[in-house]
């Protein structure tokens, strides 16, 4: 029997393993099972080239729990180790001390040092008082037992073991009792080892699927296969809209399947739904730097051996492969969307309610995606009769919707039902109004006005229809100056909780008597302020800016001005103003109650 010290001269490496290399203790299961998979895969390789002789037999990996003995055992039937290999791999830690270790690799990805030095085995000491390794090599050599209690001291001796492979026995410490519960171990195995390429058994049950869909060729998979795999990943979700199969082997390795889920409402948005794997070993579901931010709303799996198991933010941000992968995923998604748009536009339009969120988010945050997306970003007419790309809208509206600066004016509605009166007014002038009513549209409009410098967005209720594209010269009003001033005075007393500006204009006699509009710039500022934190709430709580346009040519004002009862005049004008404010959703609370009571009173008085 050999006794000795692990080759660390000045300091014990184990506190570093526990504290520095891993933040989550359950990672030890991933590391040890991954090592067992590696040992198994190496045996297959050696067998294929004739170095390992004889039948390979059962190559499954078994995890066993003995709560009474306080042990967890990971057993494989892989290449095993000779005494010399145990000494080399487990005892000769290739640096002289913890301090030198940290200094030497400072600036590199500290979280990935384990990947470089094969130190994954030492994660066992995070949860163990003692670790025993019993192993028998595929070569003709005696089995050996190695044991260590977490100090640099170890023992190494011959052992009784007839079968090829390695058993790692963890003697669980008092702080890690959770790993003596079968459900806890099963949940960790499901998380980290669910798709490992070698059969893995726990308590007699296979817990993994060794050949998941992303490891197969797209030509070997049917639509049902893709949908079944999605169901396996997200059992409670609705079926996806469609998917993209990634398969690249140069200049980096990347496989995976990304799904577009159905998302209609903001509360359904969940990021961190893409799982990152490295050779089928689960790494993380925080893929922010690998997947473009706008595609974080996608779901599915990406697998790249070029991304190490222990990833850190600094590593991902600086690694050239990660940047290439990021760009590749963006291109693949854009190509897929364009393909569907070109080949089956009707299907694309039907799915836009869900797709629009991805596309707009991408156009705002990624200029390369914006270039491609201009071909398939679409806007729907408010009556649902037509869809337009930017170019199609430009062609359809060029004659009427170019302002004096030569910019295309895109008229839009955020709430077609509430803004119906304004839409009708715009349609009557031949204008086309599109729906922009999702949670990202306010930001989208602002961004696109900067990126599309010849486009200006105007909400359909931002002004009277005559002024939506350009300010028109005032049409003569049938009222004289004194009558106009009287109406301005009456209407200036209306509007509770809003900041009113009143103008009298000569509109068509058939147009509404009073129109309330919220100037585009001020309304946008207030909308953005509402979602921009403490400073924003100050602006968001300010009164709404409202322009009240009184149609001097409407016959009702002749009657009001002829009314000798000043109180009655005030009530009528207040009601007309309230009706206009109601169309903007700005009549609430007490003001709404007063309007209802006043309306009943006026109707009763006229009977």
TrEMBL record:
CDD domains given in the database record: HATPase_Hsp90-like
Domain of life per record: Bacteria
Record carries keyword Cytoplasm: yes
Keywords: ATP-binding, Chaperone, Cytoplasm, Nucleotide-binding, Stress response
Xref: Pfam families: HATPase_c_3 (PF13589), HSP90 (PF00183)
GO molecular function, one term: unfolded protein binding
Family statement drawn from the similarity comment of this UniProt entry: Belongs to the heat shock protein 90 family.
Protein's name in the database: Chaperone protein HtpG
Gene symbol of the encoding locus: htpG
């Amino acid at each position: 029997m050999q006794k000795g010290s692990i080759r660390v001269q000045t300091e014990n490496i184990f506190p570093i393993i526990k504290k520095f290399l891993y933040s989550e203790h359950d990672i030890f299961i991933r590391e040890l099972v991954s090592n067992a998979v590696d040992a198994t895969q190496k045996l297959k390789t050696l067998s294929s080239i004739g170095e390992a002789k004889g039948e390979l037999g059962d190559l499954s990996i078994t995890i066993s729990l003995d709560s009474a003995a306080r042990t967890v055992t990971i057993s494989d039937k892989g290449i095993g180790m000779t005494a010399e290999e145990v000494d080399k791999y487990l005892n000769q830690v290739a640096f002289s001390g913890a301090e030198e270790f940290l200094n030497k690799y400072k600036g590199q990805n500290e979280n990935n040092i384990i990947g470089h030095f094969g130190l994954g085995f030492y994660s066992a000491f995070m949860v163990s008082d003692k670790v025993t390794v019993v192993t028998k090599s595929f070569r003709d050599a005696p089995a050996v037992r190695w044991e260590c209690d977490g100090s640099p001291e170890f023992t190494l001796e011959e052992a009784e073991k007839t079968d090829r492979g390695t058993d790692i026995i963890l003697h669980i410490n008092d702080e890690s009792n959770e790993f003596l519960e079968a459900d806890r171990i099963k949940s960790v195995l499901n998380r980290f080892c669910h798709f490992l390429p070698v059969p893995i058994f726990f308590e007699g049950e296979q817990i993994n699927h060794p050949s998941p869909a992303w490891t197969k060729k797209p030509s070997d998979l049917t639509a049902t296969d893709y949908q079944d795999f999605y169901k396996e990943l997200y059992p409670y979700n609705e079926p996806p809209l469609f998917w993209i199969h990634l398969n690249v082997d140069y200049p980096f390795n990347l496989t995976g399947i990304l799904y577009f889920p159905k998302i209609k409402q903001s509360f359904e948005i969940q990021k961190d739904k893409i799982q990152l794997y490295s050779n089928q070993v689960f790494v993380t579901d925080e893929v922010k730097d690998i997947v473009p931010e706008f595609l974080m709303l996608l779901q599915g799996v990406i697998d790249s051996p070029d991304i190490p198991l222990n990833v850190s933010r600094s590593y991902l941000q600086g690694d050239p492969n990660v940047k290439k992968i990021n760009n590749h995923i963006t291109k693949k998604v854009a190509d897929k969307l364009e393909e569907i748009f070109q080949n089956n536009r009707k299907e694309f339009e039907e799915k836009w309610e869900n797709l629009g969120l991805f596309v707009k988010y991408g156009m705002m945050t990624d200029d390369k995606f914006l270039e491609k997306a201009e071909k398939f970003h679409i806007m729907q007419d408010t009556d649902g009769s037509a869809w337009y790309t930017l170019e199609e809208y430009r062609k359809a509206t060029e004659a009427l919707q170019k302002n004096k600066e030569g910019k295309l004016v895109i008229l839009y509605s955020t709430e077609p039902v509430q803004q119906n009166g304004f839409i009708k007014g715009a349609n009557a002038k031949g204008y086309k109004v599109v729906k922009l009513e999702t949670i990202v549209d306010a930001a989208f409009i602002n961004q696109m006005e900067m990126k599309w410098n010849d486009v200006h967005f105007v909400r359909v209720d931002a002004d009277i229809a005559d002024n939506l594209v350009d300010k028109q010269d005032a049409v003569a009003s049938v009222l004289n100056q004194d009558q106009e001033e009287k109406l301005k005075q009456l209407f200036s007393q209306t509007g509770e909780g809003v900041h009113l500006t009143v103008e009298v204009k000569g509109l068509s006699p058939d147009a509404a008597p009073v129109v309330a509009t919220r100037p585009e710039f001020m309304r946008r500022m207030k909308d953005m302020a509402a979602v921009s934190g403490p400073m924003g709430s100050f602006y968001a709580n300010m009164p709404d800016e409202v322009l009240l346009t009184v149609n001097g040519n409407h016959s009702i004002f002749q009657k009001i001005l002829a009314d000798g009862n000043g109180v009655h005049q005030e009530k009528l004008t207040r009601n007309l103003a309230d009706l206009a404010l109601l169309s903007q959703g700005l009549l609430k609370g007490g003001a709404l109650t007063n309007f209802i009571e006043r309306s009943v009173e006026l109707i009763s008085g006229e009977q």
